[in-house]
Design brief:
Elements (H helix, E strand, L loop, with lengths): L2 H18 L3 H15 L5 E8 L4 E8 L12 H7 L5 E5 L2 E10 L2 E11 L7 H18 L4
Antiparallel strand pairs: 1-2, 1-5, 3-4, 4-5
Helix pairs in contact: 1-2, 1-4
Protein name: GAF domain-containing protein
Organism: Evansella alkalicola
Amino acid sequence: MKKSELLDQLRLEVGLAFDYASSETDFFKKVLQAIYRVTEKCFKLSLYITYNDGLDMKLLYHLSSNDEYNKQVFGFGFISLCYLRATILINVKDNQMIFAPIFSNTQLKYVLGIRTMNEQYSFSTQDIEFIDELIRFIEAKQQTFE
């Protein structure tokens, strides 16, 4: 499947996730499950929730094909970057990671983490644009659950 077809399929599935969600938490789980399913489990997906007035994060939900979870340590500097409302792409050895902040009004509420191995899938600008679009959709739709 071409990348553009994959991203179109993801858009469709994420829209359906909202249609069938019963709560905000259920919405996020369905979004992550849709991404995981459509990409044929080549991503490790994590959703972090902020606490302590947005100064700390803890894992809320995680999906991985091998149930391996590598705890991400977020320092204050990283959390400060999230307040820029920018998707962050990190390349470390054979891994690529995307971290995308999700806001509720002006408050940083969640951070979506997507991790893959370069040989399985390589992130491109198309992926970053899709993630930015996904985050805007989530931010708009999460308010319906509040």
